# Entry
Amino acid sequence: MNVLAVYNELLAKYGPQGWWPHHGGRKRPGFDYKFEIIVGAVLTQNTAWTNVEKAIECLFKKNLLDAQSIAAVSIKRLETCIKSSGYYRQKAKKLKIVAKFFLENKKSFTPSFHHLTTLRLKLLDLWGIGRETADSILLYAFNQPVFVIDAYTRRLLKSRGHKKLFMADYDELRQYFERRLPQDAKLFNEYHALIVKWGKVVGKGSSIGCNDMLETE
# Structure
């Protein structure tokens, strides 16, 4: 499949999507947008973005939209604030783990090509962070050229008759796209957003399509 041609086709049809780092066009002065994106990547597991927005807005109003506050807040208060995102008990635990990791590794949390793989492995070692979430963090929060694969990506491939690719392992499929596209994080960002747009309009899906909601290791 000519993946660049498909990108151009989707872009011409739907136009730029304006996803993260300012998903929905909202900027929050004084907040670490990178960590806000990390929070969004965790909360969007297995739910629609509208539900995530409600949870993020609650965290913002309660002054909990930063790593230090999430690490310090009680688990019950955190659960209450993110309840709209679903699976809130699991997600609250994940947010605390990610917040602690972010605080402990903040200085080294500036990915470059030579240690991108190492950072990805460290993220995958965290409880509840699967490959899709880790890659979303690397792409959207840290502007790294990592192609995010979700359920809509597979549906798009299936709709075009690529049954073998549809069944491929996550990393095999990720590398398939990465090897056929310019190593441009902005392009990967827009491409993923366009695939999700296609999925919502054509692919008969109502959620973001994440696959690792229940991954716990």
The two ends are 33 Å apart (CA to CA).
